[in-house]
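testing teh design pipeline on a random one, pls ignore if ur not involved
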């Protein structure tokens, strides 16, 4: 299980690092604490210091060379500490601008190969037709499965790929994406919507019980259903846990 933590705007990553690490250590399944969309090298270094076990450095809006140089810098530090690194190549944009953002800046397989070789990054977020947030009413995102297949073949079957902007997509497409080479699925908006709908039902008197518990359960049920769609239910221990606290690992182990 990966806790993807967006800490933009949060002034104290150490508080979250401590809290999440304690919870992770008590979990019955291995848990990774990942910084989502780290916007700067400093943000990544802070997260590592705060106890995160993985960081994403997202320079996907920058030119290739800037992106690759920063990712390489983070990887050099992170690898020595046993921290895994995620980066993004191509750019997963904003669902509010879906007509443009789901078809532009898609990941090119040959660029992905060069990027991974140059940086040593552990896993790569790819742009194959999704966007972050909530799509406009009636818009249905279409995944470029041919592109995904080509990226996977180019990088190798064992290289982990990440899908960002996975909300608002039909289950069949998500299932197929996971079967076609996506190893990590980032999802937030669908979970927030499930919680908001449950809260509204409770406040309107259609659901009995305490509001906080109803919201929490709605999140859990939605997430559990998604994990089933991804084909990941009951498989947490199939992945070799890297363990807490940090310990050095080699690229071959990832
Ligand atoms: Zn994202």
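output:
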């Amino acid at each position: 299980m990966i806790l993807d933590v967006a800490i933009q705007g949060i002034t104290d990553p150490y508080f979250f690092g401590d809290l999440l690490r304690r919870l992770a250590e008590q979990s019955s399944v291995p848990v990774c604490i990942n910084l989502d969309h780290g916007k700067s090298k400093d943000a990544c270094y802070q997260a590592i210091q705060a106890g995160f076990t993985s960081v994403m450095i997202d320079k996907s809006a920058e030119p290739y060379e800037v992106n690759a140089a920063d990712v390489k810098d983070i990887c050099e530090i992170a690898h020595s500490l046993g921290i895994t690194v995620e980066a993004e190549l191509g750019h997963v944009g904003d669902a509010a601008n879906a007509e443009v953002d789901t078809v532009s800046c898609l990941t090119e397989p040959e660029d992905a190969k060069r990027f991974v070789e140059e940086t040593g990054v552990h896993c790569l977020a790819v742009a194959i037709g999704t966007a972050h947030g909530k799509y406009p009413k009636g818009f249905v995102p279409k995944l470029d499965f041919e592109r995904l297949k080509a990226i996977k073949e180019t990088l190798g079957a064992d290289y982990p790929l990440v899908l960002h902007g996975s909300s608002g997509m039909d289950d069949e497409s998500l299932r197929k994406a996971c079967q076609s080479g996506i190893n990590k699925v980032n999802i937030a908006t669908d979970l927030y919507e499930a919680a908001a709908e449950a809260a509204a039902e409770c406040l309107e008197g259609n659901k009995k019980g305490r509001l906080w518990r109803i919201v929490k359960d709605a999140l859990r049920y939605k997430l559990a259903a998604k994990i089933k769609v991804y084909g990941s239910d009951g498989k947490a221990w199939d992945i070799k846990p890297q363990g807490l606290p940090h310990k050095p690992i080699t690229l071959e182990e990832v």
